[in-house]
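Whiteboard transcription, Tuesday session. T.W. wrote the structure tokens on the left side:
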């Protein structure tokens, strides 16, 4: 897949950290550190620009370690990168802890999963087919 990297961090392409990892870690690509105060949210640039093929998307997800240790998560998780987007991939981090968090250049702040998706067209009808579930939801099948 085609990618352009503005290398501010000394790191090049996003990488899978292990052989069968689903996500590639995304690094902050910064001129200077960014501090997130408690409950503050900021868009963090990654320095990457992509050309995903039609039928693919990229999902931006939190890293569990940052969430567990520092209360840091991706506010719009999973963020959606559309195949026709040509801007810089950014990560919307929010600090849910009671301590400030400093994001430094090159830090792995989130992960990105590339996924296939369908593009459908609607058939607008008056009546939908019957199912056992019907309109049941929100715990309708009970607890155990
Ligand atoms: O975490 C994210 C989410 C989105 N984007 C970029 C890529 C995506 O293709 C574009 C639009 O995202 P989205 O559709 O989620 O935002 P929107 O609020 O609906 O804006 P738009 O009206 O531009 O679609 O912004 C990111 O860089 N990071
Ligand atoms: Mg949109």
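and on the right, the sequence the group agreed on:
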């Amino acid at each position: 897949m085609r990618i352009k990297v503005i290398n501010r961090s000394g790191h090049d392409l996003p990488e899978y950290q292990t052989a069968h990892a689903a996500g590639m870690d995304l690094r902050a690509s910064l001129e200077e550190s960014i501090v997130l105060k408690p409950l503050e949210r900021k868009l963090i640039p990654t320095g990457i620009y992509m050309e995903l093929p039609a039928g693919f998307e990229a999902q931006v997800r939190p890293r569990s370690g940052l969430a567990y240790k520092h209360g840091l998560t991706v506010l719009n998780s999973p963020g959606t990168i559309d195949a026709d987007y040509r801007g810089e991939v950014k990560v919307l981090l929010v600090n849910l802890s009671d301590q400030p968090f400093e994001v430094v250049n090159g830090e792995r702040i989130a992960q990105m999963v590339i996924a296939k998706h369908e593009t459908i067209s609607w058939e607008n009808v008056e009546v939908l087919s019957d199912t056992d579930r019907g309109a049941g939801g929100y715990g309708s099948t009970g607890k155990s």
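Someone added at the bottom: The chain has a mean pLDDT of 96.
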